[in-house]
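Each field is set out underneath.
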Amino acid sequence: MTTLKVEILGTGCKKCHQLEANAKTAIATRHLDADVAHITDTMEIVKRGVMKTPALVVDGKVLSQGKVLEPADIAALLPV
């Protein structure tokens, strides 16, 4: 089983923390092995092309920007 690399990009606001919690819920629901990291460095966020936070990144691909996805929506975006 491959470990997913999930990153939440955001400065640490309430929405960023909610997206991180929802991502962890989605990962647990799908019984996936994943490393979850929260990137708060503004320069790193901009370097990845993200202009709106929070953002969800899975295996290096930006899947969402500027909104807090619900766990079910995140689960649908995760690879099988």
In short: The longest strand covers residues 4-9. Residues 14-29 form the longest helix (16 residues).
